[in-house]
UniProtKB/TrEMBL annotation:
UniProt name for this protein: 5-deoxy-glucuronate isomerase
Keyword Protein biosynthesis appears in the UniProt entry: no
GO molecular function, one term: 5-deoxy-D-glucuronate isomerase activity
N-terminal signal peptide: none
EC nos: 5.3.1.30
Uppermost EC category: isomerase
Domain of life of the organism encoding this protein: Bacteria
Taxonomic lineage of the native organism: Bacteria, Bacillati, Bacillota, Bacilli, Bacillales
Length: 270
């Protein structure tokens, strides 16, 4: 119900549509693959979009704005470049390189009109989060630094070393408790290094109404309407996931740890 298997075909594929099994209302997600010399033009009414370059060389046109070309060999080789497309504006993505182009198309419900902009690798905010076998790198792409420049959308990337956990201690963000917990839906999109690897993604609630674990692979997406959602990379494989968030109340990230496991954050694991 929560896991969407990836597709390897060229073109645009909506992995998480506006009508989805998990009941996400505020966000959707697609993947764009273009061969050499190919281009794709689209418009999303009622949605703002963040185009995240995953691999290849892209140029993006939005009205009289042209961004690029930008290059990224793959998500593990360089920090992200992303282009913000305001609600209801037509955009065109071109593959301007020799290799295949892959772009994540992150979407959130929006009413506010803003200006297009680009996030370069130098703009990405890099943090080390956690410790021991739950240490990971978190890259903020369109988060606090985009406040006032977007309506609802939040986008970033997390990199798990082999065998390490993230979204850990397990946290959730499905209740609105000011200063304690935000109200946000979320989608994960995974890449593995090597790409033949896998990770384990759990989702559960305190009352047990949700308690499931999935084996996730390169190119899969995962929908998180509610609940705690820790993820682990398999031994020997580096796991990446892009995270897309939005909600109806405000644009703030306040995850709330599972009280049963919050003690882990307070202990030193040296």
């Amino acid at each position: 119900m929560y896991l969407v298997r990836g597709k390897a075909e060229n073109g645009y594929h909506e992995l998480v549509s506006q009508q989805n099994e998990a009941g996400l209302k505020w966000i959707s997600f697609g993947l764009l693959r273009l061969g050499r010399g190919e281009a794709h033009e689209a418009v999303f009414e009622g949605r703002e979009v963040v185009l995240v370059l995953l691999s290849g060389s892209m140029r993006v046109s939005i009205g009289h704005h042209t961004f690029g070309p930008y290059d990224r060999p793959n998500v593990f080789a360089a920090q992200a470049t992303a282009v913000y497309v305001p609600v209801g504006q037509t955009f065109r993505v071109e593959n301007v390189g020799d290799a295949a182009l892959e772009v994540a198309v992150c979407q959130a419900v929006a009413e506010e009109a803003h200006e297009p902009f680009v996030v370069t690798p130098d703009d990405v905010v890099v943090k080390t989060v956690g410790q021991a076998n739950f240490e990971r790198k978190v890259h903020d792409i369109v988060v606090q630094q985009a406040e006032g420049r977007v309506h609802r959308i939040i986008v970033g990337e997390t990199f798990n070393p082999p065998g390490n956990w993230s979204s850990y201690p397990p946290h959730k963000h499905d209740d609105y408790i000011p200063g304690v917990e935000a109200l946000m839906e979320e989608i994960y999109f995974y890449q593995l290094n090597p790409s033949s690897g896998f990770g384990l993604q759990s989702i559960y609630t305190s009352d047990g109404s949700i308690d499931e674990t999935y084996r996730v692979k390169h190119g899969d997406a995962f929908m998180i309407p509610r609940g705690y959602h820790p993820v682990c990379a398999a031994g020997g494989y580096q796991l990446y996931y892009l995270w897309l968030m939005a909600g109806p109340v405000d644009r703030v990230m306040i995850p709330h740890d599972d009280p049963a496991h919050a003690w882990i954050r307070e202990r030193s694991w040296d």
